[in-house]
Amino acid sequence: MKIWRHVSSFFKQFHVRKIQTIISLSTISITVLVVILVSYMLFDRFSQASEENTYLNLNQIIEQVNANLELYVSGMEDIFEVAEEKVNAGGKLSDETLEEQLGTILNTREDLVSIALFSMDGQLVRNVPSIPMRQNTKLTEQAWFTMAQKNPGKLQFTPPHIQNLFKWEYRWVVSMSKVIPYYDGDMIKQGVLAIDVNFRTIDELSQRVSLGKQGYVYIIDAAGNIVYHPQQQLIYAGLKYENLEPVLNYSFGSYLDEAEGEQRIILIQTVQPIGWKIVGVAYVEEFLTTKQDLRDFIVWFLIGVLVVVLIVSIYVSARISQPIRRLERSVKMVEKGNFRTAVDVGGVYEVEQLSKRFNLMLRRIRELMDQIIEEQEAKRKSELDVLQSQINPHFLYNTLNSVTRLAEMGRNEEVVTTITSLSRFFRISLSKGSHIISVQEELEHVRNYLIIQTIRFKNKFRYEIECEEQALECLTLKLILQPLVENAIHHGIEQLAEEGFIGVYISLQDEHLRLKIKDNGVGMTPDRLSKVRTGAARSDSGSGSGVGVRNVQERIALYYGAPYGLHFESELEEGTTVTIRIPVVRPENEQGGKRA
């Protein structure tokens, strides 16, 4: 037993260190085994994928060059067809008009050098621009002329050559030629139409291609003649750079070629319809990773993984308990009532998230406590505002002034009615300091107010009060109807020329109490209505009880919650309707404050 106690004490003493060792050794062992297994399984596949991706990428580059050249050739064919149509229509056009149209075609592109029509015996029929020919050009022996005669009706493209037909600077061009009919007066003859295109455009399309640092692209025609080569001048000087024999046997594809002890990837694409071949040359050593390189990478990768895993596992295991202890200390401080404490966010992911949530919880608790304090202060302020506005000197003065005038005129019955209504009005306003009264009392309060106002305004308006029987015993906030009726009188009815009307209607709808005040006054503009709905405009009269529309809305929201309050509907010259929506509260459920 004594030995066991010593062993238990030893494990307790080194518990954290033991966990660190287990985590470190387990993580390193599993990681090394996984890395070795995966590396062994993927070694060959990686090599194959590297080669496949290299071929794929290089082929995509050559295919893009091929697509660009085919697009360019297609554009040249379209231009040749337009020029051919103009020449064919030459019998219907004057020489000046035809020359002008051919000149327009020539000016559409910067790479067009000349357009010329020759007879089958080599005589110049028409050319644009109109420049004299050189002597001894041996025109009928030139490739573009002979190719067109050998293949009548088919557009021919020549390899690049020096244009030496006309008396201007020598230009490096590619010629398009074709045998076509043309008008010589009223006679139709056969001739050769030739359009020379500046070779610079094809040269630029090919030069922009990059196949590594040493790789390049060259173009040959169907006969094996070099159309373009980055070492073009040396080739024309007699040096042989390329082995074209195997290239001529392929229309497209790729193969490995040994040249001067170096492995090269040869990629081939054919430009349709002219039959040129685009040949890409890339050096294997620039693109393909050797197996030895891959082995070296795996070894260094494994060493790096071991070092990183060792450092991370030791760090994580050593730090995993520290944030938990900090969290424990913070919880104890909160337990003692210190809600201003905060936990330092750190450690492993789970501990970090727990620390964040704990801090968020403390912040939310503080916010709720502050909110409760603010709500209580607002509630007390609202109650104070109601009490202060319950006896408004201005309203009392106007009412007593009306009583005086009625007494002077001997209208004693109306005097009695006014004073009685005023007494009841203030009795309900005070209501022994309670801010919650029954719907019946609230209706009695607004009825007395309407009686006083009808007498004061000499029956300028009539009113109507209707309430469902079940709603009379429900409880409501005090003084929520009178301010709205006051607004209806001062802002709607008072400005009418004819008799006004105010209706107060109360009903129950799905456990909600709906109180509606409707008048036929002047109404509100859409802009004014929008401001009233958003609380941006003051809706109280400023001369009545002082308990304004905004006060009513705030009190309802404070006691019953944000979903409850006022809803306004109004049209100019039609009147205004204000609907109050609050929950049904019966006397047995009244809790003396804000409804739960």
Keywords:
596 residues; alpha+beta; five-stranded antiparallel beta sheet; 16 helices; disordered C terminus
Topology diagram in text:
Blueprint: H1 2-13, H2 15-88, H3 95-107, E1 112-119, E2 124-128, H4 143-150, E3 156-157, E4 161-163, E5 171-184, E6 187-198, H5 200-207, E7 216-220, E8 226-228, H6 232-236, E9 253-259, E10 262-271, E11 276-283, H7 284-287, H8 291-319, H9 322-335, H10 349-389, H11 393-408, H12 412-430, E12 436-438, H13 439-456, E13 461-467, E14 475-477, H14 482-493, E15 500-509, E16 512-519, H15 526-534, H16 549-560, E17 565-571, E18 575-583
Parallel strand pairs: 13-15
Antiparallel strand pairs: 1-2, 1-6, 3-5, 4-5, 5-6, 7-8, 7-11, 9-10, 10-11, 12-14, 15-16, 16-18, 17-18
Helix pairs in contact: 2-3, 2-8, 10-16, 11-12, 11-13, 12-13
Helix content class? 40-55%
Helix count equals: 16
Residue-averaged pLDDT, rounded?
Answer: 77
Structure summary, number of beta strands: 18
Q: Give the end-to-end Cα distance, rounded to a whole number of Å.
A: 62 Å
Overall geometry comes to elongated
Largest sheet: 6 strands, antiparallel
Structural category is: alpha+beta
Radius of gyration: 50 Å
Fraction of residues in β-strands: 15-25%
The low-confidence runs, each spanning 5 or more residues with pLDDT under 50, are 10-17, 539-546, 592-596
Describe the model:
This protein is α+β, with helices and mostly antiparallel strands and 596 residues long. The chain contains 16 helices and 18 strands. The strands form 4 sheets. Strands 1, 2, 3, 4, 5 and 6 form a 6-stranded antiparallel β-sheet that branches. The protein is elongated, with a radius of gyration of 50 Å. The C terminus is likely disordered.
